Amino acid sequence: MGSPHSALLGSEFVGFDAETATATMRFTVNTAMTTWRGGVQGGLVAGYLDDVMGYAYVAATDGEQAPLNLEISMQLLGLIPVGATIIGKGRVVRGGRRVIFLEAELLSEEGQVLARATSTAIPTARPVPPPEAGE
Asked: Do 117 and 71 meet the contact criterion of CB atoms below 8 Å apart?
């Protein structure tokens, strides 16, 4: 079961490389994420970057912990158009007991870097999803 935001982001977890602490995700851009310019709204680009950085840390801790962001710094390098499939690469730069450092990139299917981010976060116990309605 994915997080409720996964459908909005069109998130698909592709894999995790434990050696480099890097998660790979695929996102399908839906119209609700875009502006009149035809690209993803800047603040929502941060959602993609945050998602892949978070998955990297969750995977690196075998699902036991999740990051709680203190700050995210982002660079927008290209328009992410509606209908595009983008690839997210998120990596744990350093995972400590009190603070963790993460980074991510969003790439077009052709490999062009569209956005990048870094995050400083604190490690927390991974939240337990509430039971589904009707259970």
From this structure: no
Q: Given phi > 0 = left and psi -120 to 50 = alpha, else beta, which region is 35?
A: beta
Distances, alpha carbon 128 to alpha carbons 5, 58, 105, in Å: 15, 13, 28
Residues 54/59/113/117 CA torsion (nearest 10 deg): 30
Backbone angles phi, psi at 84, to 5 degrees: -70, 150
| Token pair belonging to 132 | 């589904």
Residues 6+ apart with CB under 8 A from 47: 5, 8, 9
Domains in the chain: ranges and CATH? 5-125 (3.10.129.10)
Low-confidence ranges of the chain (pLDDT < 50): 1, 135
- Predicted confidence at residue 1, as pLDDT, reads 43
Which sign does the torsion angle of CA 21, 15, 50, 105 carry?
Answer: positive
The pTM is what? 0.90
Task: For residues 78 and 8, give the distance between their C-alpha atoms in angstroms, rounded to a whole number.
Answer: 21
